[in-house]
Design goal:
alpha/beta, 8-stranded mixed sheet, 35% helix
Length: 181
Amino acid sequence: MGVRPPGYDTSMKIAIMGTTPHAQAIAHLLAQHGGHEISVSDAFKPERAAPAAAGLGDDAIAETPYQQAAVSDVLILATRWEDLDQALLAMGTPPDTAVIVDATKPPHPGPQSGAQIIAHRLDSHRVVEAFTQTPEPGCTISLCGDDPDAKAVVEGLIREMGCTPHDLGGLKHAGEIESLA
């Protein structure tokens, strides 16, 4: 797997928050290639989490967003934008060390990107915008964020998925990525 960036363990706990086809595509690529512990939750319809986790293989589990936030190294917010408030409320406050990946698709661009809104609401500098478009093996995935270590973790995950990371810089560029979704 090569040399990992700071903060990148050989096996991480990765939470997929959402059960949409978009969320499941991200989860499938991670489960197939990463060797990480994957959990799935759905704050809007919790009963969807177990079947979504079962579709990833024997090692994936269903959890609540709160359980995920308490123990995960990476939290991938892949809910529908309309369900984001409920997901963040159900998640509670994640540890300062968690990497938060915004994979949501805000419906309308505004003065702030969805990732900037999430970073502000969670009071976290470890938010990375990525996976806004549904990933496929071999694709290029744009990302941006203000924390170099958090971005390095996400870049490593992208490479493990068989994709190529494209770093656009700081979180101020998140709107560019979101506009492509």
